[in-house]
Amino acid sequence: MRLRLWVWLLAGFLVLSACGTGSPIPGESAQTPSPGEPRYGGTLVRSLNYGDPANLDPIVKNEVAAQMVTMNLFDTLVHVDPVEKTIQPGLAESWDISPDGLTYTFHLRQGAKFHNGRDIKAQDVVYSFQRVVDPKNASPFANRLEGVVGYAAFRQGEASRLEGLDAPDDYTVVLHLEKPKPGLFYDLGNPALGIVPREEVERLGEDFGQRPVGSGPFQFESWQKDDQIVLAAFPDYWAGRPYLDRVIFRIMKEEATRDAEFQAGNLDVMVIGEAQYKRYSQDPNWKPYMIEVPELFTRALHLNTTRPPLDNVKVRQAINYAVDKALVIEKVLSNKAYVAVGPIPSSSPAFNPNLKGYEYNPDKARQLLKEAGLEHGFDLEVISSSYWAKSVEGIMGYLQDVGIRVKLVQMESTTVFDRTAEGDFQAAFNSYGGGLDAVMTMYRIFHSSNFGRPGNTTRYHNPQVDALLEEALYEMDEARRIQLVQEAEKIVVEEAPWFFFNYNKAVMIHQPWVHGLRPVPTDIDYQDLTKVWVDKR
Fold first, then answer.
1. 13 close to 436: Cβ distance less than 8 angstroms
2. Is the dihedral of CA 266, 269, 272, 277 positive or negative?
3. How many Å apart are CA 428 and CA 381, to the nearest integer?
């Protein structure tokens, strides 16, 4: 079974709307000519809003700041195009699938190279995949290969290799599954499963994450901590070098700083926040250069279900009843979001329009707190990066009104990630999701096998939810998969391990000379930079 025969598996996974860019240049009323053919050369300067990523080893950090860089440094067997909703060849130029759906044979393209000049071989794929699963590396992405024969034994240290992974020759990789897995290609296209050169990983050791060597369209050039990361076009990339000569990721956490640099023309592209959105969207000169998309992310207050009093479901429900989400979105977020009813966002085909979320009912919140023995309320510490502080501040007053006294503690986003991964928190504001397949996303966030770094930071555990998600993970009938994940979501909403706040409306703005940016629903920051070019003429 070849690539085209798998389109049917993907067609129902994603239905999205997006708005593109126009053509008038700011300050001019007349339309400019078409940008014409893409041009080679130039540098794209992007803002990196979330702080320094700390590590660029693709298997280490499960966060936007790292992945928006590593996706350009490391190439994968297949490429997932979230806008076109297709799976495309990557380092594997073709593949075959056995009739029972249990054996995948990937045929690697010959001549593809690592950034150090060496040809990529099948053993590099075996090494890279085993490195992700190896328990010594504690990768949050290990479960991307769950379902491969021998996965559990290797993860538990009972086997020396991943049994279901073979390289019969230099350009063939065979993957054996325990059960058919309809979401496999989405996993294989994740940057964490990017192919790495063993000799560089072993030579650099821990420094591999500071001086990464991959095989993607761009190669690492330099990194000034808390300032900028520079990537250069890889001239020997198998698909041809990208149009851009360089990409500079400027680490800029302050919105005012980003805005000033953009207005001065020193920043080519940035994702904008609520205040900027209100201003730019009302400016006819800039509005054509805005790209909007309803992202597959849910913004929420993650509640540690193992920490009293949040281990009491009534307390978690009270938090959800206490806040007028629609009013906070309107007044604080300038309507740059949509009210959430549960963890699966409205842009997903698995979204359940009949799911009943939590209405604004402060009296109900107070009653639930009383039933939980907290008639006089309690203190709640919320950790958050500065990026999300405005959202937390928007809900604090409502929680205070029902007796929940919030203390907001701001810290670096990487610190928030580490503390939630280790369970060292009471509540944390975060944005989670981005997956094209709601089943896999829900599995990682709420299945009890994924406590901590793999995604279930709230330590939520419900055997019925586990069973539903396990069945859905390997169900080949798409309608049945959606039914199963919606049943699991309903239970999760009732037990409220999150305060379900909003679904993000992502907005990116760019200079008139930038072309090729797209409305990416998995995260608008995850731009395929091989498609981007600049022309300042």
1. yes
2. positive
3. 8
pLDDT of residue 349: 87
Task: Give 127-150 pLDDT, tens digit per residue.
Answer: 999 999 999 999 989 989 999 999
- Nearest one of 44, 2, 115, 55 to 417, comparing CA atoms: 55
162 pLDDT band, cuts 50/70/90, is very high
CB 320 within 8 A of CB 500: yes
Boundaries of every domain in the chain: 18-24+39-218+511-534, 295-504
CA distance 434 to 67: 12
Task: For residue 92, give the 3-state DSSP assignment.
Answer: strand
Q: What is the homologous superfamily of the domain 295-504 according to CATH? A: Dipeptide-binding Protein; Domain 3 (3.10.105.10)
Contact of 521 with 82, CB cutoff 8 Å: yes
Residue 84 has a pLDDT of 87
pLDDT in tens, 286-313: 999 999 998 999 999 999 999 999 999 9
pLDDT by residue (tens digit) across 83-98? 888 899 999 999 999 9
Fold of the domain built from segment(s) 18-24+39-218+511-534? Dipeptide-binding Protein; domain 1 (3.90.76)
> Cβ(53)–Cβ(69) under 8 Å?
yes
The number of beta carbons lying within 10 Å of the beta carbon of residue 63 is 19
Q: Is the pLDDT of residue 253 over 90?
A: no
The token pair that represents 520 in the structure block: 């990416």
| pLDDT tens track for 465-501 | 999 999 998 888 889 999 999 999 999 999 999 999 9
CA distance linking residue 374 with residue 278, whole number of Å? 40
At 100, list the tokens.
């029972």
Spatial separation of the C-alpha atoms in residues 406 and 393, rounded to whole Å: 9
Tokens matching residue 186:
């989405």
Confidence tier at 35 by pLDDT (50, 70, 90): low
DSSP letter, residue 109: P
Tell me the C-alpha distance between 390 and 427, whole Å. Answer: 16
E strand intervals along 288-336? 290-303
